Amino acid sequence: MAIRGLLRVGEVCVRVFDIDEARRHYGERMGLIETYQGDPDKLYYKVADEHDWYSLVLKKADAPGVEYFAFRTYEDAEIDHFAAALTDYGLAVEHVEAGVYPKSGRRIRFTLPSGHVMHIYADKEKIGNGMPTRNPGTIPDEGYIRGFRCVRLDHVLLGGPDIVKNRDIFTGIFGFTVSEELVTQEDETRLAVFLSCSNKPHDIAFILQPEGSRFHHVSFLLDSVNDLFHAGDLIGKYEIPVDVSVNRHGVTRGATIYFFDPSGNRNEVFTGGYVHYPDTPTLTWDTSQLGKATFSQDNMPRDSFLNVLT
Amino acid sequence: MAIRGLLRVGEVCVRVFDIDEARRHYGERMGLIETYQGDPDKLYYKVADEHDWYSLVLKKADAPGVEYFAFRTYEDAEIDHFAAALTDYGLAVEHVEAGVYPKSGRRIRFTLPSGHVMHIYADKEKIGNGMPTRNPGTIPDEGYIRGFRCVRLDHVLLGGPDIVKNRDIFTGIFGFTVSEELVTQEDETRLAVFLSCSNKPHDIAFILQPEGSRFHHVSFLLDSVNDLFHAGDLIGKYEIPVDVSVNRHGVTRGATIYFFDPSGNRNEVFTGGYVHYPDTPTLTWDTSQLGKATFSQDNMPRDSFLNVLT
Amino acid sequence: MAIRGLLRVGEVCVRVFDIDEARRHYGERMGLIETYQGDPDKLYYKVADEHDWYSLVLKKADAPGVEYFAFRTYEDAEIDHFAAALTDYGLAVEHVEAGVYPKSGRRIRFTLPSGHVMHIYADKEKIGNGMPTRNPGTIPDEGYIRGFRCVRLDHVLLGGPDIVKNRDIFTGIFGFTVSEELVTQEDETRLAVFLSCSNKPHDIAFILQPEGSRFHHVSFLLDSVNDLFHAGDLIGKYEIPVDVSVNRHGVTRGATIYFFDPSGNRNEVFTGGYVHYPDTPTLTWDTSQLGKATFSQDNMPRDSFLNVLT
Amino acid sequence: MAIRGLLRVGEVCVRVFDIDEARRHYGERMGLIETYQGDPDKLYYKVADEHDWYSLVLKKADAPGVEYFAFRTYEDAEIDHFAAALTDYGLAVEHVEAGVYPKSGRRIRFTLPSGHVMHIYADKEKIGNGMPTRNPGTIPDEGYIRGFRCVRLDHVLLGGPDIVKNRDIFTGIFGFTVSEELVTQEDETRLAVFLSCSNKPHDIAFILQPEGSRFHHVSFLLDSVNDLFHAGDLIGKYEIPVDVSVNRHGVTRGATIYFFDPSGNRNEVFTGGYVHYPDTPTLTWDTSQLGKATFSQDNMPRDSFLNVLT
User: Fold this and answer.
1) Residue C82 lies in a domain
2) Same domain assignment for residues A111 and A21
3) What is the reported pLDDT for C1?
4) Which residue of A209, B21, C126, D70 is surrounded by the most CB atoms within 10 Å?
5) Is residue B251 classed as helix, strand or coil in its secondary structure?
6) Which of B44, B68, B101, B258 is catalytic?
7) How far is B262 from chain A (nearest CA, A)?
8) Are C106 and C160 in a shared domain?
9) Taking CB atoms and an 8 Å limit, are A142 and D146 in contact across chains?
10) Do B135 and A198 touch (CB under 8 A)?
11) D135 lies in a domain?
């Protein structure tokens, strides 16, 4: 037992207008590590302390947004277990052979009620985190961690309708816990649900939006508020468009910066947040405290944060 | 699925010579929160960001050391599942009724091959973390987090013989992963095994010792290296005996201070360390790098650290 | 030689509507230390790591703003030297006897071209920083540093006309250096001048305003960005009105939060910034980079920051 | 006035056995910036946030130690003033023409009672800190700050006899303040004196040693304890010999790591410490608290720290 089933968001595929601009943003500036070249219309990145070949895929497209996201599951047999459960639930589940996605084993592919395409896979080849597994030491060679000093791809926030159905799939089928939720003060309508399958306060979250398959942000973990400040300094230096500068979320207690890639997709760098367990009480925020729920150091809701998605 | 079975070290019972001295150390100085008084020979503490009534129990005794440790499991039915598996393995499993341990549901109790008494329970009443669950905010009232600014009880390190058998129980029955291990350079004898059931690089670890049921340390999580420095300043101010001052472990990459309570039990405060998953490669250190494995900022093994246990 | 003449802003007197509200803000919440009670219409505070009896005076009044600020000078004889030089310059200099201001030696008092009342004094009794001067240790008793964990009163920013005249007095008579300045892109009109007599990037600054004797903010030094975040968490918790949440200044490179006291006076907590020397080149920002000059992590100028003064 | 006379240790010349090894240590690993090549037996480094061409000179020699150190003074005329005062005191003062030291104006050169050769100069050409002086921004291009992320050369600690005479020269002639001192408990013999001409708790310090002209360490400023930890990680990675790993000094309250260059010269990286003024009370430590005075987080004096000099 311990951690079983879905482990983490192991892969996110984001649509970008221009590959060169995307490389400059995610590679040169943010410092993500380009690990694979197989298709001139795609970029594959890993983040410094990840072991898998890649976690972020950028795909040239005519519109920004999220193409799909993929959860890594603990073992291969679970893929069939989930396929059956999802089919029972009523979703159409497609099987994809190993190798269709580079370095990756077989997958299932399906569309959530919110309109998002989700994958589940159990295997992706490992490239390591820049340190050996025998007597690894504690820090890779200089230059391996650079730019914004991102540690890992951490989570995604997605927008769409029917987020309560999404929630039910993640809790009922995948065993996630609702760590936090945002509801209307008037009638407790769920505006956002935050779901954890780990010790992180969220692995994925959904925000209510009229249109399906919307992308709010992909988030990268940093080691400290010092590194958050350092990232903020570089964001300012490069004049990267900022949505919300350094602040702390009420939800998750993470310290955060939101900014946009050249295609208008929102990125987050964050650090901190509490240690979550399945028996941690669910925290509920209502719209009377919308400012505090989103940005707790000035309690000020930002329209752009709530309404700009790609 | 997600996190199931054993969740965390939810309770550690440490033996102390003197209750008043222990209260001064753990309560007044470290700032743990005394939550329950039921027995003049015991002290019950929670750490600031924990929700359960208590995680640390101090028991008056003639000798220091660890009386028992207890893992919280996800749900009640798992207790019986584990009881059966442990019995099959050949351990004597004792059932303890709800209420024998304050605020706690029923438990099983058994002795590991290393000589340590371990409990498993699924329920303990919750007292909260100083913040409501509706619109909680991000920081409790001033004074709730104080002293060393500990966030949670994080893990224990225990010494005894047969640690490979312990490892097999934790991996085979409880589903833990070996995150790291320390072996002799000569013949790969396991000197220490680090076991994770979570995203933490270890939830429990065992170090090879000829005598059974030995206690190496209990560890408390801090939020940042700044808070680690603050704790170090207070440790110095109070002239608390220090085993190893601020450093970083090779194993787990945690930043650490080791010090002793008035009875000679080792405590740790730490912060950092990497995010662990069941598919993270196991890291192996051998004794050619003993210094780096233990204290990576000066690569200097400390005799006391390896040999002083209670 | 070394540091001579004016050493620091040793005292600021700020006008507040209500003494009880002010005490709640500056004392209970921010954690400044009330050290003297002599007049029911005034509050006297020191900051934790200062040795003098007080540095902040709050005075009940019908309007917010700054009543006066006072520089501590190195030695008594310099008072007369400055009095003569200021008189030569054409300012009316008033002599105030020792004891008129509590715990303070004699002063001179004069009005700058910008309309601000400035004092110079050489003596104020010392109350210490919570630690002895023989074998002091490194950290005072718990509770001495609390609230926002402010370390020192650091600087003031004042608004008024004729700030170039102010600059000339501070450089020509007091020997300050212009560390940075903000000018219009069109014709290099000085909009703000930042003046240092120390290793700090500014000890005092003036911002061009049509009306005289305006108060922009008083700033308190923190130890780290972690403490800045902690202060930000408390500011959010207490719902203190925030002008600009966590960011980094272009000017001075200080990490900052701006907020308002209950009377509408702007306060700052900050940390960092570079080490300044008299031979450090003067940095000039022009209005083409107004956003970056003020808030460099999102390059966004804030109207309120530039125009709201008391 | 403000800061006048001696401003800072602007240059230290350290003797090393091997230029290539020194370059690997100070340049490649520590990340100091090599700015000048003029002599195959010397290396010239600046630290990232300094504006002068160089502050550290390494000179090939048969023995390690300090060749000389040089203070930058505010203006040229002060050189003659100090030359006269030092001559009056009884020291032989040698005049050195501009250009003898690269990029440097004229100097005076003399030997302190402790046996150390000291220079005073008023001019050195500036190369800048990687950022323009018009609209500079807050962070140089990536790669400019690297390795240990040192910000500035901060101070030197030197050993020799007659340190009270040195103290009298620095206080009496140069106007420094004794910020702290270490005395024997028995008879108040001065074992170490810490002298400040700035807002730093020390610009130079002398430790009593029977032999003259001894070198204890040269110290480099870091921005935060996070950066100190990062430097510690690299020190461990490169297996640089460590004298004392991360700790906090009692004297100056600086957080520190001591390590050795390949020639056995001690280096320090540090951060923090209080803001000092000429009216800050002198702090006195006696040998009853030798551990706390030197390393306050474990109160443990280190023999090597007190006795190993080059």
Assistant:
1) yes
2) yes
3) 61
4) D70
5) helix
6) B258
7) 29
8) no
9) yes
10) no
11) no
Residues from chain A contacting residue C290 (CB–CB below 8 Å) = none
State the nearest Cα–Cα gap between C67 and chain A, in angstroms.
29
Q: How far is C239 from chain A (nearest CA, A)?
A: 7
**pLDDT, tens only, B190-201:** 999 999 999 999
Helices (H), ranges, chain C: 19-22, 76-89, 163-168, 225-237, 290-294, 303-307
Specify whether C43 is located in the same domain as C101: yes
Both A103 and A161 in a single domain? no
Interface residue of D138, D225, D228 to substitute, partner C, most C CBs within 10 Å: D138
Straight-line distance from the first to the last Cα atom of chain A, in angstroms, rounded to the nearest whole number = 37
List chains adjacent to chain C, taking adjacency as at least 3 C-beta pairs closer than 8 Å: A, B, D
User: Mind telling me the catalytic residues of D?
Assistant: 155, 202, 217, 249, 258, 268
Of D196, D221, D283, the CB nearest to C133: D283
Q: Are residues C156 and C115 in the same domain?
A: no
Active-site residue, C216 included: no
ipTM: 0.96
Contact in structure between B109 and B119 (CB atoms under 8 Å):
yes
Nearest to D3 among C2, C128, C296 (CB): C2
Q: CA-CA distance, D296 to B234, in Å (whole number)?
A: 9
Whether B230 is a known active-site residue: answer no
Asked whether residue D301 is assigned to any structural domain, the reply reads yes
Q: Which residues of chain C have pLDDT under 70?
A: 1
pLDDT tens, position by position, D49-107: 999 999 999 999 999 999 999 999 999 999 999 999 999 999 999 999 999 999 999 99
Q: Is the pLDDT of residue A280 over 70?
A: yes
Quick check: is B165 in a domain?
Answer: yes
User: In this structure, what token pair is assigned to residue B64?
Assistant: 């220091």
Structural domains of chain D, count = 2
Q: How far apart, in whole angstroms, are the C-alpha atoms of residue C36 and residue C182? A: 39
Residues B165 and B299 in one domain: yes
Testing the interface with D: which of B148, B222, B225, B274 to mutate, by most D Cβ within 10 A?
A: B225
Kindly give the residue spans of alpha helices, DSSP state H, lying in chain D.
19-22, 76-89, 163-168, 225-237, 290-294, 303-307
Q: Chain A neighbours among B 237-256 (CB < 8 Å)?
A: 248-250, 253
Question: Residue C95's beta-bridge partner residues?
Answer: C108
Chains that touch B (3 or more CB pairs under 8 A): A, C, D
A286 and A159 within one domain: yes
Among C155, C180, C216, C276, the active-site one is C155
How far away is chain A from the Cα of D234, in angstroms, using its nearest Cα? 7
Binning pLDDT at 50, 70 and 90, where does residue D243 land?
very high
* C141-197 pLDDT tens trace: 999 999 999 999 999 999 999 999 999 999 999 999 999 999 999 999 999 999 999
Between CA A301 and CA A293 the distance in angstroms is 8
Each residue's pLDDT tens digit, B18-67: 999 999 999 999 999 999 988 999 999 999 999 999 999 999 999 999 99
Strand order in D42-46's β-sheet?
D33-36, D42-46, D56-60, D6-16, D65-73, D117-121, D107-111, D94-96
| CATH assignment at residue C47 | 3.10.180.10
For residue B306, pLDDT over 90 is answered with no
C75: distance to nearest CA of chain A, Å? 40
CB-nearest partner of B235 from D245, D246, D297? D297
Residue reference for tokens 């008494």: B117
The chains found to touch A (3+ Cβ pairs under 8 angstroms) are: B, C, D
Q: Which two tokens mark C41?
A: 């219409």
List the domain range (segments joined by +) for residue C104: 6-121
Within this chain, do residues B99 and B171 fall inside the same structural domain, yes or no?
no
